[in-house]
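Re: weekly structure request thread

Next one in the queue (224 aa):
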Amino acid sequence: MLPTIAKASLRENIYTLPNILTASRLVAAPFVGYCILHDYHAMALGLFAYAGITDLLDGWIARRWNLKTVVGTVIDPMADKTLMTVLTVTLAMQGALPVWLAVIILGRDVGLAISAIYYRWISLPPPKTFARYWDFSLPSAEVRPTTISKYNTALQLGLMGLATLAPVFPAVDLATPLGVMQYVVAATTVWSGASYIYSKDAVKILTPTQAGEEKVEEKQKGPR
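Done, posted below.
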């Protein structure tokens, strides 16, 4: 029975509330950058707060009502990295972030993006077509962030939050904590990038049968 169910479950429902919230973070990212570049600091801070809240909320909803999807494991870190890239570039352009740190952060993310494109392609079930490549209802590879990567993401968001907060409250001197955070983030960014190279569990290639089996197991477990 299991192989039969697995074959019938090659596609998954990607239109879940957690995925919609994640998509909204992707949409919000360029608006955050626009606000920073045009000195709408309060609005930029508000959108940044929205991104942080929805980031916590979509994960909680996915776990609480068993709405985890393979595509969610891909677009969730993608949304985080898109926001991080926009913040890094725009804050560096405004002089709120050192250029050397922006190069480290962006360099790591470019490397991970190239790796993600590669793994998506080699793991895509045949036939390998451009349309099927962008059809994320076809699960092919599952990304599992390493522990240090999770800490690094939190630290990066903390740094970007401080840098975004500083112009809104100019009376508060945040120079010292910003300086310390910059060096901590630089170290953890390099460390997290290396962890993806040496970790065996960071990327899991899913065969069609495995994709179906994981969906069946999730259904059998029920809501957590």
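The longest helix spans residues 99-123. The chain is about 70% helix and 5% strand.
Next request, please.
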